[in-house]
Amino acid sequence: MSDSETVFREEAAEHLENLEQALLCLDATPDDAEQINIAFRAMHTIKGSSGMVGFDHLSEFTHHLETLFERVRSGRLGLTAEIINLVLECKDQIDGLLRSPMPESGQIESSLALVGRLQQFTEGPNPVAAQQTNTDSGDQSAGSGCYSILVRPSESAFTDGMDVLPLIRELQGLGACGLSLRLAGAPEDPELCALELQVLIITDAGENALRDVFLFVCEDWQIDLHPLSPDAFRHNLDRLSAAGWLTDDNARALHALVPAAAPDRPQASDQQALRPTSAEQTSNASRVVESELSIKVPQRKLDALMDQVGELVILQARLDQLAISREDESIGELAEELDRLSNNLRETTFDIRMLPIGSTFGRFRRLVRDLSRELGKNVALETAGAGTELDKVVLDKLADPLVHLLRNSLDHGIEMPETRLAAGKPEKGTIRLEAAHEQGRIIIRISDDGAGLDVARILEKARKNGLVPEDVTPDTDAIYNLIFEPGFSTAARVSDVSGRGVGMDVVRTSIESLQGRVQLQSEPGEGTVITISLPMTLAIIDGLMVAVSGERFVIPLSVVDECIETRASESSRENGSRLVKHRDGLVPSLRLREWFAVAGQQPDIEQTVIVHVDKERFGITVDEVIGHSQTVIKSLGRLYRDAEGVMGATILGNGGIAMILDVAELIDDINSTAV
Question: Which domains does the chain have, with CATH numbers?
Fold first, then answer.
């Protein structure tokens, strides 16, 4: 795949996302001029750029969409739910067409069917009064205007696979054109592009429509566009014709179309039209510098950068160890400086990898809209905390669990409209999706105002599946957690939405693979709340290094509250758990030596690290607390992957290995085995 195709696909995906979000907004407010323009520009850009990189079928297909929204923009066609549904289907079709410049026969047939449905709106009678209004703010299209456009492609245009002909065809579709294509120089390398295109055009489309033609190339190519007075336009026509760049017939045809009166807009001289001044070039460059530039970087490069930062952190730990062992002040100073630089580099790399969760929230609006209509329900999706940032790796793996949870809320949680009305609820149900930072972790909550979980039905199904003995009745929370068991489902029938018993099991497995936790609360008749707690990153964390008989362990610093001294004489149960005094109460504690069966002499005075998970406090008793440590998380091999209470390992400065504790899993294991 060429670089130009890769860039095109990436940018087209962004435009499609903008198109979908605009359509979902228009579903509620069909007269929103701003959203109409966003949708139009998305389709216009995809149409122009797809033709330039050889996606001719996609360019032709998107042209029909652009025509439809041009009628909407001009006020000649009113948006309806039927049109929005059709455009959403077309958006899905474009998703498929982006995969290859040469679509399969089935895709072509689908495109033709959709084009036929589009033409019912683009070629039929206008359902809205044809009063021409321009909704594009800042557009200057009062009558025919004269413009000069100088286009200089980048030197790499040929090797990038760019084609200037689609731009020429699009300009010709906007008005009467005079075109002059010439060489701006003689490059030594024949693969370098030295073309220069001079366009004189008369159009009533407006300046913004002309600039939209060059949206895909405006950052790399030089585009100088100027409105001209009628006299300046005629003068430029005569100069190009005399130089042999325009045919006499072309020049005469354009002369006949020049408006008699000058439009009310700033005019440029004939010299400015044919060549930009150095002052204008400087001004254009300064505008680029003033705006914050951004670049796209493949994720594999970010992952490689994070790996290198991790190796740097390990090297810094080795240098610290060397400075301590040799008691050398000069090495110690170097270690401190490296520590400062590695910390700054780590934070900068984290910032690069962090993305707002709103980029994931946005895709769920379409899911809720389509699925609620399929189920015959009236459901609104509310979101909060869209600006909350987390690691892109975590964000990508979070999408599927959230889809399962939303589908379950729609299918099992929200009642049918008539049922809600009979229960005294609003006909429209609400699902709320929110995110926030809490105590160094990401908290995501999915809540609905539906019927809540049916405890009796869940217990009956669990007993039928052999998950709960007939003579045992678990507490309510334990019954709720049964829905996370593999193969469990309370659906009366299997459908495309639910009933196969894989959704909630997948959710828990996916969240736990991210070192996260999922909790469930429900009130019958009032709704359900599912809370997901996740680390902000899976690469490098701040940890508290502890030791047991020379064996090192790391406790994530985000869950540590304080450290206290305890006596070894306090006995433990068989599973290593006990109670320790903490302030004015008792806190359950786990002796790490006994839990992992670490050999060695137990000290008389031990250290207990008080940690928290959600609102629950717990103690982890060790021989020694060593101190703060930047911890690079390394995955465990298959032999140790199922080790309870361990989320990974890290490499120490002396080359040894320290296990990173999964505090939440330790607490769950102790609670489940407590007598």
Answer: 3-122 (1.20.120.160), 145-286 (3.30.70), 299-355 (1.10.287), 357-535 (3.30.565.10), 540-673 (2.30.30.40)
